[in-house]
Specification:
alpha/beta; seven-stranded mixed sheet; disordered N terminus
Length: 237
């Protein structure tokens, strides 16, 4: 009996973002989302020939990354644990939407050409398992692109939460820089790029041009950045 309330609370936190689906785009920082879109599609996946490519957007949220992949001609499957978020995503881009946990996908091994997951794995109970699942469903030779916060900066999240500065109440299991790389390698991925995004928090608009310039050092000093992005190729099985 004592364990049930904690399980219920954990479930509520895991599904928190679905409760704000209708206002999620309004509370997201526009600089952050535009920068992550640029990093994923221009820097990490810039060489992909998109037309006809089968893409998984794992933890699609309101569908920003699904929409961009579809715009480029990819066949996109958008997955999220939140049915309300999926409705918003479908309205944005009309991709094939599936309500599922990204750490437990009912998908055969070696299915997708490209797997994208942006700012999702940290909101799962077991981010390492989520990474392993993303690599499992990717074809050998396919690409997996993941962005997530960096545990080096987790203290800022704790402070912001206590001051009431963040409108989020979801799980916050931020991976460390070397931890994420180890998970990718352990699941059969070979990192091609691992870089940092945002050397410091991006909330002050006038400092965002400086942030963009400092991203140029993201590969060399990524361990110290607020967010991290990794691109891996799945090795042959």
């Amino acid at each position: 009996m004592p364990a049930e309330p904690s399980i219920s609370a954990a479930c509520r936190r895991e599904r928190f973002y679905d409760t704000i689906a209708d206002t999620f785009d309004e509370v997201m920082n526009p600089y952050d989302i535009s920068r992550r879109l640029s990093v994923v599609f221009e820097e990490l996946l810039g060489s992909v020939n998109w037309p006809g490519t089968l893409v998984l957007d794992a933890g699609c949220g309101t569908g920003r990354f699904s929409a961009e992949a579809a715009r480029r001609g990819a066949r996109v499957v958008s997955v999220d644990i939140g049915p309300r978020l999926l409705r918003v995503a479908r309205g944005r881009c009309g991709t094939h939407a599936v309500c599922a946990d990204i750490a437990r996908l009912a998908v055969p091994d070696d299915t997708f050409d490209v797997v994208i997951s942006s700012e999702c794995i940290e909101h799962t109970p077991d981010p390492a398992q989520a990474v392993a699942e993303l690599l499992r469903v990717c074809k050998p030779g396919g690409l997996v692109a993941v962005t997530c916060p960096n545990a080096f900066w987790h203290w800022s999240c704790v402070v912001a939460d206590r001051l009431g500065l963040r409108p989020y109440e979801g799980l916050e299991n931020w991976p460390g820089w070397f931890e994420l790389r180890r998970w990718v390698c352990g699941a059969g991925g070979r990192p091609l790029v691992h870089r940092g995004i945002h050397l410091f928090p991006f909330v002050v608009r006038r400092l965002q041009p400086l942030l963009r310039k400092l991203d140029g050092w993201g590969e060399r000093f990524g361990w110290a950045y607020v967010n991290q992005a990794i691109l891996a190729v799945k090795t042959a099985t």
